[in-house]
Fold this sequence. Notes:
Number of helices: 7
CATH architecture: Up-down Bundle
CATH topology: Four Helix Bundle (Hemerythrin (Met), subunit A)
Helix content: 55-70%
Amino acid sequence: MQDKLxxxxxxxxxxxxxxxxxxxxxxxxxxxxxxxxxxxxxFSAITAFHNMGYSDWSASAAFYTLYHGLLAxxxxxxxxxxxxxxTFALIEEMIKKGEIKMLTIKDVKEIYDKDVTEDIAHSSKLxxxxxxxxxxxxxxxxxxEFEALKKRTKELLDKxxxxxxxxxx
Length: 169
């Protein structure tokens, strides 16, 4: 993990404002809150896509709901990420170090872990549902899949928001 984070921070030093890694930045409550607002916006999109007959896009909206929540936590702690795998690596490291208390590694891996091999068509893992919708020719989730996706996204978003609102001692 340390090698991954080192590469992410090295990448963050390149490219100016358009870097593709991680950077330590000045704490910025406005940016952190903006990510929470974006997460809530994306959460609303889950249902909007479903209601319009585009529930395949609900899966991507669910992912970005949670991803922006994680970016909010990083911004609140003084980090900027422009790379998904770097974001997840830093969040995981912060959980291991006890800097993030409301989320578990298992929660985070449910969103992004590509190393777990499961039957994607029958998985409840958010990543698997998103990949199934994104890369298959299917254009809709079954109603029970949609409800499970929305429910689990809400549960994880609630944990992220609790972490975001947690007062650090």
